[in-house]
Amino acid sequence: MITLLPFHTQVANAWKTFLHRWGSALLIQLLMIVPGILMFPLMAEYLLALDAGTDPMVVFQTTVYGTSFVWGFALLLLVGVLTTTAQMILFAAQDKISFMTALTSAVKRYIPVLYTSILSAIAVIASLIPAYALNYWYYVAARSGLPIDGNGIIALDAVIMIAVVALLIPAAIIAVWLMYAPLLTAVKASSAGFTALKDSKNLVHGHLWQVMWRIIGAVILFQIISVSTQTLYLASLLVPFIAGIIAIAFFVELYKELHEGGA
């Protein structure tokens, strides 16, 4: 079993990978503008209503942009899979490849990656059901009818919360096991579907906790960077945009390390 590189080294490697291929990466990410244009009018109406103190529900009931928003949201999901696939292919390539090469490869692998992604999502969602079922049963059906109050309810709430968190741990493990299935499919390291799910689990096997805390650390780091620029107008737009790309580079760099270690 290999020992993964320190977290700061992996972040530095992701940054270097991004700098080496930033032009193509930015062009790929700009494809997300298309669904954004369709969604923008309704989002603008919603934000203006919030600023004016108007009930946002009135916006949804009276807007003429509802159809374009729905189409934009659907396109956001579909284009999101395409751009993420292209980014993964771009960063995973041993030699530098062009924007068109990455995008063409992503288009060719789109259906297998989408299929694999849906299977992964179904598995993760299914693993969340016990936690959500317990939470729903307690707060909606059971809590109001309990013959206790005050400190007793507070203590029971704490116990239920601990139980829910405990039930979320298997879901987190499954999510980490399966997270590389779309990437394995995108770079043709595995067949689509259940084979990719199995290969992803095998890839992470023996490194589960190392991988989990690195992914959590990366999410927290990039979130802190994005939040820290919210007061700067231009930076608040550019930094999250670029941080999202670097996050994919980090994800791919971690994959390379796991793949080379298991080779």
TrEMBL record:
Superkingdom classification of source: Bacteria
Transmembrane segments: 26-49, 69-92, 113-133, 153-180, 208-226, 232-252
Record keyword Transmembrane helix present: yes
Keywords: Membrane, Transmembrane, Transmembrane helix
Name by which UniProt lists this protein: Glycerophosphoryl diester phosphodiesterase membrane domain-containing protein
Organism: Candidatus Andersenbacteria bacterium RIFCSPHIGHO2_12_FULL_45_11
